[in-house]
């Protein structure tokens, strides 16, 4: 009789193989699976600059508000963000789309640096703190054709660069940093005014905000500036405020500038031949290689023998440049990234590439971009890793630790970091998923 | 070992009575060298009856490769070598498309997935992330105060290493071969077990939105000992063992002096 009551026993090899071949195959990602673009934020959240309202006003009663986000946290956005900028307590996100909403802002809005955000409770007033990325209404002539290329934020003002309609400025204008005439006793809070700047010698390709001044770089390689000039940061040869963007001369007259950078009161410009020019505040030895004075109001060439410079970034007290070979040089004052012993230097010092992940195993790892916050530095490698160092003000470094970081430290981000924007106490990064 | 020529028996001086030259009857004491009877081979027996063999870092049943042993007095060096915390290098072979319960290809099948979307660049990206997170763990577990200048200098040279107990840390990963569905990685690690490496292969598969099992784990380097110094099964005889010990002695001494 057929042994129906017989137990199965351990499966033989043939049965195992057949069971394996008959098992269903799952597909999690197709061949054409695209890598998604994401935004990660970290740092101080009470100002709303991180764009996550549950950190400031928790959605459940028992949850506590999160003052500091010490590690990268994902921010959900509707569109792919192509450019981001962190100001002093607020953030701007811009997308390259042709839709009507191109720029979102969050954080402090006491000087209307995020435009007018109509309050839902009172239709006449605006919000002073914006906790979520809210669209900024730009007065565009052709809103469905113009694209926003870049955004930049300063202490209380912001600049939006478009491809065909010039530069839009909003926020505080007490020093003329928005490029329009200073109005006495102007109330900036809840203001609808967004100024448009179009008169430059050619198309503007980069906008940079310092603390209370603005810099514009045009396609021809000239630099325009407006705003506060008491430290000479406008580079126009005087220490007064300028309310109309004016062309800079000095050592950069006739030089094709390919990049400008500023965040505090010092400014750096890089020419296409790899020379570095600086002007502005030099109290922290940023420009001490050319002058002993503490303010320089005309752009001066900085004679460094470090090779052809590709990119420069200015912080509040320290500066960093990246050369064509991929070496990173720092100088200035503060935590510069070479251990606790190096506090200040007037001559650029190189940070060894082994700290950025270069080793015998991966000899082609090099730094691709450098960015500066007020007292932090960030470096992006070509492998998509983010290294930060500097003062860890309210968790802005994103390392998860509270202490200051004296040498470059990796930030764990789940993805390949494409770009990062550093602010005073928070940072925003644009990341592509694996 | 026991057949090897032995030390000559100890000699001692004994005063033995011997007949004196000239005059019969008087006995004189003459000092002579006489072998000690206790050292006689028939009295003492074979020199070595058992050997103390100690083992270095563990190696799984399913893994293969360099396995460090210490003999006799060498066992003391084993603890010193362990305290050096040197990295070990493995070649790990993996297979995409399958997931099993014990992460190796002999386990029970859990899931099968597609893998044709995986490219070498994606794999290398994941490996770079793994290296990055492990680098952070390396610095954190080394218990060095990050704020000191010497911490910075050690970090520049890449010498920061955990000198105590720590969870498994991978110092470097590299992709050696990539031919779908198979791939091979070279992993440098500290304080790990082979099962952890198999789990690592499985996690790489998960990160690439597929699944992977580990087919081969082979240790090619354990601190200072590499595959070239290791003796294969055919050479497990006295001469080669002694030669290997002599070759490695210098290396071990320099390494110990450098670290301790």
Automatic annotation (TrEMBL), chain A:
It is found in: Mitochondrion inner membrane. One of its GO terms (biological process) is mitochondrial fusion. Keywords: Membrane, Mitochondrion, Mitochondrion inner membrane, Repeat, Transit peptide. Residues 34-316 form the RCC1-like domain. The keyword Mitochondrion applies. GO terms for molecular function: guanyl-nucleotide exchange factor activity; rRNA binding. Guanine nucleotide exchange factor (GEF) for mitochondrial dynamin-related GTPase OPA1. Activates OPA1, by exchanging bound GDP for free GTP, and drives OPA1 and MFN1-dependent mitochondrial fusion. Plays an essential role in mitochondrial ribosome biogenesis. As a component of a functional protein-RNA module, consisting of RCC1L, NGRN, RPUSD3, RPUSD4, TRUB2, FASTKD2 and 16S mitochondrial ribosomal RNA (16S mt-rRNA), controls 16S mt-rRNA abundance and is required for intra-mitochondrial translation of core subunits of the oxidative phosphorylation system. Forms a regulatory protein-RNA complex, consisting of RCC1L, NGRN, RPUSD3, RPUSD4, TRUB2, FASTKD2 and 16S mt-rRNA. Interacts with 16S mt-rRNA; this interaction is direct. Interacts with OPA1; this interaction is direct. PANTHER family: RCC1-LIKE G EXCHANGING FACTOR-LIKE PROTEIN. This is RCC1-like G exchanging factor-like protein. It comes from Erythrocercus mccallii.
TrEMBL record, chain B:
Coiled coil: none annotated. GO terms for biological process: pseudouridine synthesis; RNA processing. GO terms for molecular function: pseudouridine synthase activity; RNA binding. It comes from the Eukaryota. Residues 49-193 form the Pseudouridine synthase II N-terminal domain. Belongs to the pseudouridine synthase TruB family. This is TRUB2 synthase. It comes from Erythrocercus mccallii. The lineage of its organism: Eukaryota, Metazoa, Chordata, Craniata, Vertebrata. The gene is Trub2_0.
């Amino acid at each position: 009789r057929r042994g129906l009551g017989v137990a199965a026993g351990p499966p033989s090899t043939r049965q195992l193989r057949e069971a394996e071949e008959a098992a269903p195959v799952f597909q999690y990602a197709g061949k054409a699976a695209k890598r998604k673009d994401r935004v990660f934020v970290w740092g101080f959240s009470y100002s709303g600059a991180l764009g996550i309202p549950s950190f400031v006003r928790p959605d459940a009663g028992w949850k506590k508000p999160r003052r500091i986000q010490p590690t990268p946290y994902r921010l959900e956005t509707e569109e792919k963000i192509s450019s981001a900028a962190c100001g002093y307590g607020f953030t701007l996100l811009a997308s390259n789309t042709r839709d009507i909403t191109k720029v979102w802002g969050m954080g402090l809005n006491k000087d209307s640096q995020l435009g007018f955000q109509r309050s839902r409770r009172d239709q006449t007033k605006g919000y002073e703190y914006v906790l979520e990325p809210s669209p900024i209404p730009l007065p565009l002539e052709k809103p469905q054709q113009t694209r926003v290329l870049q955004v930049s934020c300063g202490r209380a003002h912001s600049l939006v660069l478009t491809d065909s309609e010039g530069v839009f400025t909003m926020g505080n204008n007490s020093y003329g940093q928005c490029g329009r005439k200073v109005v006495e006793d102007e109330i900036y809070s809840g203001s609808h005014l967004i100024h448009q700047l179009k008169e430059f010698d050619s198309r503007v390709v980069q906008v940079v905000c310092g603390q209370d001044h603005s810099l514009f770089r045009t396609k021809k390689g000239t630099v325009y500036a407006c705003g506060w000039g008491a430290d000479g940061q406008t580079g126009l040869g005087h220490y007064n405020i300028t309310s109309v963007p004016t062309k800079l001369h000095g050592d950069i007259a006739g030089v094709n500038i390919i990049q400008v950078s500023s965040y505090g009161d010092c400014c750096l410009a890089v020419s296409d031949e790899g020379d570095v020019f600086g002007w502005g505040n030099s109290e922290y030895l940023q420009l001490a290689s050319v002058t002993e004075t503490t303010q320089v109001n005309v752009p001066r060439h900085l004679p460094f023998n470090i090779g052809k410079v590709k990119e420069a970034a200015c912080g509040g007290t320290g500066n960093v440049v990246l050369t064509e070979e991929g070496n990173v040089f720092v100088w200035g004052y503060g935590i510069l990234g070479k251990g606790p012993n190096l506090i200040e230097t007037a001559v650029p010092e190189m940070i060894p590439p082994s700290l950025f992940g270069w080793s015998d195993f991966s000899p082609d790892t090099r730094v691709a971009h450098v960015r500066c916050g007020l007292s932090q530095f960030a470096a992006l490698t070509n492998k998509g890793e983010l290294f930060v160092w500097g003062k860890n003000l309210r968790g802005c470094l994103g390392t998860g630790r509270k202490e200051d970081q004296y040498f470059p430290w990796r930030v764990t981000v789940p993805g390949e970091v494409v770009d990062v924007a550093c602010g005073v106490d928070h940072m925003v990064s644009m990341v592509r998923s694996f | 070992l026991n057949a090897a020529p032995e030390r000559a028996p100890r000699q001692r001086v004994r005063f033995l009575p011997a007949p004196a030259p000239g005059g019969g009857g008087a006995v004189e004491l003459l000092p002579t060298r006489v072998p000690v009877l206790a050292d006689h081979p028939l009295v003492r027996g074979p020199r070595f009856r058992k050997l103390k063999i100690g083992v270095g870092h563990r190696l799984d049943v399913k893994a293969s490769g360099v396995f460090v042993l210490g003999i006799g007095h060498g066992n003391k060096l084993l603890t010193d070598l362990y305290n050096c915390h040197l990295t070990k290098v493995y070649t790990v072979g993996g297979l995409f498309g399958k997931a099993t319960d014990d992460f190796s290809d002999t386990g029970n099948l859990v899931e099968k997935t597609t893998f044709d979307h995986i490219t070498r660049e994606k794999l290398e990206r994941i490996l770079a992330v793994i290296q990055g997170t492990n680098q952070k763990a390396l610095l954190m577990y080394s218990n060095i105060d990050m704020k000191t200048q010497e911490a910075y200098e050690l970090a520049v040279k890449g010498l920061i290493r955990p000198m105590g107990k720590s969870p498994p840390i991978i110092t470097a990963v590299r992709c050696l071969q990539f031919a779908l569905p198979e791939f091979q990685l070279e992993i440098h690690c500290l304080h790990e077990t082979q099962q952890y490496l198999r789990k690592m292969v499985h996690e790489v598969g998960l990160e690439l939105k597929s699944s992977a099992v580990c087919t081969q784990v082979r240790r090619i380097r354990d601190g200072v000992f590499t595959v070239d110094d290791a003796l294969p099964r055919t050479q497990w005889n006295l001469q080669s063992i002694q030669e290997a010990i002599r070759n490695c002695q210098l290396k071990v001494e320099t390494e110990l002096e450098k670290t301790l």
